Amino acid sequence: MKNKNLSLIMHSRMESDRIILRPCSIDDAEDLYEFTSDEETTRFIYEPYKDVDQAKRVLANYYLEEPIGKYALVLKETNKMIGVVEFRVHEETKGGELGYTLSRHYWGNGYMTEAGKLILELAFNVLGVERVFAATDIRNTASAKLMSRLGMKHEGTLRRNHMIKGELTDSFHYSILKEEYESES
User: Fold this and answer.
1) Can you tell me the distance from the alpha carbon of 162 to that of 107, in angstroms, rounded to the nearest whole number?
2) What integer pLDDT is reported at residue 3 of this predicted model?
3) Where is 73: in which H helix or E strand?
């Protein structure tokens, strides 16, 4: 595997036809709050944010403190942040973990599929990982469908392995291997 941090920094901005993945900024607080305060958007991941100050704190203490592999998902047309994408490299297993949140107001438009394809291209063609994986609450069928659209295969279900809003939930686990990605490209 190539030097992951250097490669991620060199690819901290990526774009497709309609979206840009770029580092988060404190200026994203209003947009972040807009979708993280929505109960439907956050239903399967965390409690909705209470105010813009919470969004600023999360930006400062999570996204900006260690920004490598963390992206704002921005619409090119409006420069509006509509989601976040994370990619964590696990060097010991030559793998990478994909995570994401998208404002429900933009669901069903293919934006997260575009973002996922950018991350897979980075993972396999730049970073040289062998496997990319992701997980979702089993009730989040849209997320599972996204993983399938990205070419990921369902690996299994872990029972009561994740705490979501004070409740132990089951998770679907998906992955795609380098050779599977290459055969689909």
Assistant:
1) 24
2) 80
3) strand 70-75
